[in-house]
Design goal:
With about 550 residues, the chain is of the alpha/beta class. The chain has 21 helices and twelve strands. A five-stranded mixed sheet has the order 5-4-10-12-11. A three-stranded mixed sheet has the order 8-7-9, with no helix packed on it.
């Protein structure tokens, strides 16, 4: 039996098994028509609007939207998705995008692990629970793809930083700039990671050598210059920021519990998922403690080191070994995690704590994967990781299925809406993932959907043309007339809102806003679609 297991986990057999896990991981995307996320509908809707502005003649869409020319650090997927959508339906465009990520992250991580530890391929399985992270379910596709770019950037730097030339400089600069246009946090963390690689090599090889010092200074200068183009864009971006959301913080003790629960991996149901994600924490912690114990046991002080400084340096030279820069980067990200607020306006956006929590784990498992382990520890780790990963997917399956049904209902409702119509969504759903579901209405036809947070923010490729937007009204009621608010310009001619989509448990609501809206809809609008979760009303001119 043991011989069969060893034979299966030969280089070829083990990689086929790794690919099989990728296929199993992709099942939630392959099985359902949609894999709904919080921001996913908005990405698809704005992708369709962007195509309309660029390749079609549509005076209505041109009246309401324009392309954002500011180089904001959030464009990577917003360019990639319309390219897919140009040659295939929206649902397949998003599916291909997600499949690229689901396959790209583990393969890139494995590529990195084998580069730093040729015998550590089995440790690359650690990445699987990180694929369906909280950020993916939020629909933060730019962040998800930026993690792949982060790994590629670090891999390239490890491979070439000791032999830098013009070609290497151009590649690193291009990678850094691409990361900037993907996600600003990853852009900053990439710099930290590359810096610690250079510092670690310098410190391990020589502390006092003048030639090594010059090499380190030249490497650091190379890195700074490679960052100059994107840093210039960042400064321009800071000068453009139109508003500031303010900041929100997470208490220190709660942040510690987030690390203990691997909070960045909990997506839909904390009660169900925290048991598995906490198991991941204890596995990573156990392996980290073993590594630290090994390091302390193997470290020594040379007899010639008489004063404290020389003794400390002598100890660190044996304590710090190859690839410990991943540990230093993890510690640096941990400090940022503990110090930065969870939301910091347009500078670095929201969900900062969750993103940094994800990155702490990423660098810790890279550090673990870079070390030598006995085969039995590897096999136990694989079993635990796959148990965590597959149970997390299984626990979310029912929710994904229900969300897919909701998304397909939106597509059916869209068939009842005329092209170029104006739609006001009103959301009464208690499911936080329904926040932007109305955007599914506009993924295949040009519509003006008045719930479009991406156009509101100015942080994405499209923005509202507020100067040309009409004075939009429900019957005679203007924006913010009672309790609802939508894009409108009272300096322009009055125009009625043609459709109202009510989403969620509207019938049971008896607050002043709901009663007012029910009255308006009953008097001025005609019901065109009714289900348990949605109601579509059209303005009745008669």
């Amino acid at each position: 039996m043991l011989i069969k297991v060893k034979s299966f986990f030969s280089a070829k057999g083990e990689f086929l098994f790794f690919c099989l896990i990728i296929v199993l991981t992709a099942l939630p995307v392959l099985r359902f028509t949609f894999f709904p996320t919080l921001d996913g509908p908005a990405h698809l809707y704005n992708s369709n609007l962007l195509q309309t502005l660029l390749f079609r003649s549509d005076p209505v869409i041109d009246t309401y939207f324009k392309i954002n020319t500011t180089p904001v650090p959030n464009w990577f997927v917003q360019v990639l998705l319309p390219l897919f959508n140009f040659i295939m339906p929206a649902q397949w465009a998003e599916k291909i995008l997600l499949l690229l990520y689901i396959a790209g992250l583990p393969l890139t991580f494995r590529y990195m692990v084998v580069r730093i530890n040729p015998s550590g391929a089995l440790l690359s399985y650690f990445i699987f629970p990180f694929i369906y992270s909280f950020m993916l379910h939020l629909g933060l596709y730019n962040f998800c793809f930026s993690v792949i770019l982060l790994l590629l950037g670090i891999h390239y730097w490890i491979s070439h930083h000791s032999n830098l030339g013009v070609y290497n400089f151009l590649v690193i600069t291009a990678l850094v700039t691409l990361v900037f246009f993907s996600h600003i946090i990853i852009w900053g963390v990439l710099f930290i990671g590359l810096f610690f690689i250079a510092l670690s090599v310098f410190f391990r090889d020589s502390v006092v050598s003048g030639s090594r010092k010059k090499i380190f200074q030249r490497t650091l200068l190379f890195l700074v210059i490679a960052y100059l183009p994107s840093a210039t864009l960042f400064i321009e971006y800071l000068g453009w920021i139109p508003k500031f959301w303010g900041s929100s913080t997470v208490p220190f003790d709660e942040k510690l519990s987030w690390i203990r629960e691997s909070r960045a991996l909990i997506a839909l149901d904390r009660a169900k998922e925290s048991f598995y994600t906490s198991s991941l924490f204890f596995l990573v912690l156990s392996l980290s403690v073993i590594l630290i114990y090994r390091k302390v046991s193997d470290s020594e002080v040379t007899a010639a080191a008489k004063n404290f400084f020389r003794r400390a340096v002598s100890f660190l030279k044996t304590f710090i070994t190859a690839n410990d820069h991943f540990l230093f980067t993890a510690i640096a990200v941990l400090i940022l995690f503990l110090q930065l607020p969870s939301t910091l306006g347009f500078i670095i956006g929201g969900f900062v704590t969750e993103k940094l929590c994800f990155l702490i784990y990423l660098f810790f498992i890279l550090w673990i994967a870079s070390k030598h382990w006995q085969r039995w520890i590897k096999f136990i780790s694989i079993v635990v990781i796959l148990w965590i990963h597959l149970n997390l997917i299984s626990s979310r399956w029912g929710s994904i299925k229900e969300l897919d049904e909701n998304a397909r209902e939106c597509i059916a409702i869209a068939e009842k809406i005329e092209t170029d119509a104006i739609v006001l969504p009103v959301n009464y759903s208690v499911n936080w993932l329904h926040a932007h579901f109305s955007n599914y209405l506009g993924i295949e036809k040009p519509l003006v959907i008045l719930e479009n947070f991406q156009a509101n923010d100015g942080y994405f490729p499209l923005v509202w043309k507020y100067a040309r937007v009409p004075d939009l009204r429900i019957d005679t009621v203007p924006s913010d007339g009672l309790c609802l608010k939508w894009p409108s310009n009272r300096n322009n001619p009055v125009q009625g809102i043609e459709y109202v989509l009510v989403w969620g448990d509207f019938e049971s609501k008896n607050d002043a806003c709901a009663l007012w809206l029910k009255s308006i809809l009953a008097e001025k609008y005609r019901l065109m679609h009714k289900s348990k979760i949605a109601g579509l009303y059209r303005y009745d001119v008669n």
